[in-house]
Amino acid sequence: MQAKAFSIAALLIGLHWGSAPLGLAASLIFVVNGHRQTLRTQEIGGREWLSLRQVAEAVKAQLEWDGRHRRYLFRLPPASLIVTPGHSAILLNGRTYLLSTAPQLSGAEVLVPAELLQLALEEIYKRKRIRWDAEKRLIQVEERDYSLRGLRFHTYSDHTRVVLDLTKPLAFSWKEDPSQIVLRVKEGVLAPHFQRQDLSDGLVRSIELKQRLKGVELSIRLEEKRGPIKVFALKGPDRIVIDVFREGAWQLAQPAPAMEPTIIVIDPGHGGQDSGAVGPRGLKEKDVALDIGLRLKKLLEKRLPVQVLMTRSEDLFTPLQQRTAIANHAKANFFISVHVNAAMRSRTVGFETYYFTKDPSDSSARASVLQENLAVNLEGVGPKEQDNYLKLTVTDLINDVYRDESSALAELLLDELDQILKVENRGVKSGPFYVLAGAAMPAVLVEAAFISNPLEERKLMDETYRQRVAEALFEGIARFKARYEKRMGMTLGGRSG
Ligand SMILES: [Zn+2]
């Protein structure tokens, strides 16, 4: 109960009609389920007031004068409100709330401060959607449940995909000009948590969603140079997809020449303010991961005709989604995220490798996922959005396509770690790792030893041991690359023949 009172108090503080210039008499636009009405307001003593009768008419409530107690009864079953002129306490659904000032009698009317309207609406339409637009002085009550539940986007090498997730199929139309696409979803009702998204991925600048009276408007601001745009609807779950292609993407989409160099992205976990796990003697996961990653890069570049990109080469914080975006943008062939493990029990030792699946493969996979996804909290992404991102990425089959390749790479890496380091092999596992979720290529995460174990921490402190870990990862990648290129070569040969 206490919590409820608090949230209402927070809402009241959030009511800012003050920015709009108020004359002696002004008005509010009040829209309930698309039905538009105007409520007249008055300014008295620097406050904005409404007549309670007007409010009752707008929401089709019953208003009675209780002469015995000198109070007004406002009924909209199951909601009820009791207002006593001259008293700032009101009774709303049986609970007492204090207004910032007392309702007043003015002729035959009772005037209430405008804040009461918000309070009453929040209570009456509890689970419904109420939108306040102080600038337009608009209050919109939408009793229907929202139909636009999510917005996702992803940067691929040749296009950027924007996906609007719907709760049911909805009609839409769109217009494009050189600088933007505006898509209108008829009768769409926006879920309450959308924010403007800045992508600046070289193709899309920003994405914005707005609730309009007749539906939802999506604006995608574009960079000057771009290729064609495709807009289409998909089912199961219902969604609208907008693909913005790069300039010349159609040519790029042709089969690539067989001798294109292999691009490998190494992603040293954590960095900057995100230390990752910390060992009993203070060794930090971020430092170990970076060192192993840089050693692996050196080995790869020295021994194989490959190009290696690092998601970070210094002690820097890099958002998880950006890490795969780097790989996708570079059209990388493989993505390897390097981490060290930590466990509640300090006795736990060994190596694990992971690939992406919607659900964790076992309890230790669940623990690793929780630990490795923590960094997202430093990026200001809410848990719901994280959840949606992971779930919906899977439905778009980005990872399904690469699942077999990813699990094969994970297997080869673990096999080499096992053979070269003679470590405890804890198996190939899988789970919803945020850092792997959007990779459009085979992608794995390596958990090299447990920094939480004093013995393994000591090993990880030793640079010869870290070099051996890098050697083992190198061998695994080399084997995978050979297998992968054989297969790709066959595919390309088949096509050109
Ligand atoms: Zn980690």
Throw out a few tags for this protein.
Aminopeptidase, 27 strands, disordered N terminus, 497 residues, disordered C terminus, alpha+beta, 3 domains, 12 helices, Immunoglobulin-like, seven-stranded mixed beta sheet, Copper Amine Oxidase, Chain A, domain 1, binds zinc ion, six-stranded mixed beta sheet
Distance between the termini: 73 Å
Shape: elongated
CATH first level of the largest domain: which class?
Alpha Beta
| Largest β-sheet summary | 7 strands, mixed
Report the CATH topology name of the largest domain: Aminopeptidase
Report the radius of gyration as a whole number of Å.
Answer: 29 Å
Averaged pLDDT, please?
A: 81
What is the second-level CATH architecture of the largest domain? 3-Layer(aba) Sandwich
What share of residues is helical? Answer: 25-40%
CATH superfamily of the largest domain: Zn-dependent exopeptidases
How do the strands of the widest beta sheet line up side by side?
A: 9-10-3-2-1-12-11
Structure characterization notes:
With 497 residues, the chain is of the alpha+beta class. The protein folds into 3 domains: 2-142, Copper amine oxidase-like, N-terminal domain (Copper Amine Oxidase, Chain A, domain 1, 2-Layer Sandwich); 148-252, Immunoglobulin-like (Sandwich), CATH 2.60.40; 262-493, Aminopeptidase (3-Layer(aba) Sandwich), CATH 3.40.630. The protein contains 12 helices and 27 strands. It has helices at 2-13, 52-59, 115-124, 249-252, 285-303, 320-329, 363-373, 383-395, 398-421, 434-437, 454-461, 463-496; strands at residues 25-32, 35-44, 47-51, 62-66, 71-76, 79-83, 89-92, 95-98, 104-106, 109-113, 129-133, 138-142, 148-155, 159-166, 172-177, 180-186, 197-198, 204-212, 215-222, 229-234, 239-245, 262-268, 306-310, 334-341, 351-356, 425-431, 443-450. It has a 7-stranded mixed β-sheet. α5 (285-303) packs across α12 (463-496). The termini are far apart. Residues 1-23, 251-258, 392-396 and 490-497 have low confidence and may be disordered. Bound molecules: zinc ion. Zinc ion is lined by residues 269-270, 276, 285, 339, 372.
